[in-house]
Predict the 3D structure of the following.
Amino acid sequence: MTTIPAGLGHHAETFREDWLEGLADAYARTVRRVPDACGVISRHAPRPGKVAVVIGGGSGHYPAFAGLVGPGLADAAAIGDVFASPSAEQVYRTARAADGGAGILLACGNYAGDVMHFGLAARRLAAAGIDTRTVLITDDVASGPPPVDGRQIDPSRDRRGVAGDFFVFKAAGAAAERGDDLAGVTRIAAHANAMTRTFGAAFAGCTLPGAAAPLFTVNAGTTELGMGIHGEPGLRTTRNLTAAELADELVDNLLPELPDLPPGGDGRVAVLLNGLGRTKYEEMFVVYRQVNRRLREAGLRPYRPEVGEFVTSFDTAGVSLSLMALDDELTGLYDAPCDTPAFRSLPGAHPAGSDDRTDAPAAAAVTAVTVVTAAPDTQPATAAATGSTADRATAADLPATAALQAAFDLVAAHEAELGRLDAVAGDGDHGIGIVRGLRAAVAAARAAEPGPAGDPRSAGAALLTAGLALADASGGASGALYGALLAETGAVLARTASGGATADGTGPVCDTELFADAADAAQRAIGELGGARVGEKTMLDALDPFRRELRTRAGEELAKAWRAAAEAATRAAADTAELTPARGRAARMGALGHGHPDAGAVSLALILTAVGDTLR
């Protein structure tokens, strides 16, 4: 929506005022507007005798800075235009509104505009007789060498302030809340800054309100390691990374930069995995899984870890990792309660071991997770490219497992195409979902197929188990329907009478008539489960011609009959482009759904074709 000049009131010239008004409306219980200023103040401020902690920076970084105002955190925040410092006038007015008579601490990131405007505001406050101190935040290890003790911080030379802002604001706010004087609050803020380090990465740039083009971009298929929150160049460009590889990069760049751990801290580090605006929470949790493992392997103890958005960069795709080495004092301040629009911490003790899992972590390897660093306009890596050993055929595979493996291989090769077809109706996840489900089905069948080869009861047992695994792993409507198809087919095979004829007279055999019966049963089950009928542009439009062709050829050899039936299913799947969807989410599109084959019908035809190629 940021690319539409007038979309949702996104006029660049009024954007700051518009969103601040909306924030004040939504969180009137916590914050209120500063009169005649672009800032917000805690509803409970000013409080006589309390040091006022005033923070600030440009718009486009929410929850920083206005979302971190409230009891126990900042008293007020001055807000600039998008990616621009608030002016000295705005900082001054905001600080004056928050002054409770015990002095003011100004805290901001180390950027030239912020340093100048907050510095000018501090001079004006001092001239007005208000004791004022300033702390500049310098946590971004990618942006320069660490500040030197005793030397004034220089924004052209020293490190920037990024997501580690949160730790500094939290510690300073808690110190002020407990009654520390201005010197004490300033000391705490400076100490928290000295103990904090951040490293980030971006996968796609952002577009500002009212703009028709991105402010900055990241080349497709690449990741910028160390990129700043305004698009400042990073340390290096690399290919897209898996979640585990990204976590390793974040940790590897931070560990050598961590300050010496305080004595008595037991290796405690506050941890913040921060989203830059477009990266989803579930993706960040995947990254955090590896971050947590790596930190613990390094002898560190994550303390009250946070995963979410704290300092964003509008709609940038990316994450950053911040660590603050904790001593007892910083731990107590980090534990202290607060209540702001974007972050709340409840009062109460945080016992040792509270951040350790009491259940046994899943045994799956972290390194096998899906790539999460691709920009939204790029296609995800296909499952076949992940290289998991569970995805590869083995010489020992029995017929049902081999058939499912072939289906997986072919569908995975068409994953992107299936996603594009499904996107016509909405979410575009059919390719991803069916590949995920087939992968699970292969693994389940491989473990469950007892043999011997050619025994329908063996294949039936494998398909029953595979159907349950596919439905569980794939999820959604497609998972339920494909799971029912496999399970119902397996049920028919497993029920085969033991008196059926075989070449050697020992038991039942997998022949065309048996699979025609299974196809009939599968179609009935899918129709009952999904409520669809032939002609409504669903997978049934490929399954029905397959079933009928197989029944017509019931007296033929299975491999020949199956391939002919699969060809009929493939033709029918292509013909669904001429149908108008009448079932499921696509039905809402009406005539707009005409002209594109149904993703479910296409994937089913691919599966049936692949299975036919395994029959001899």
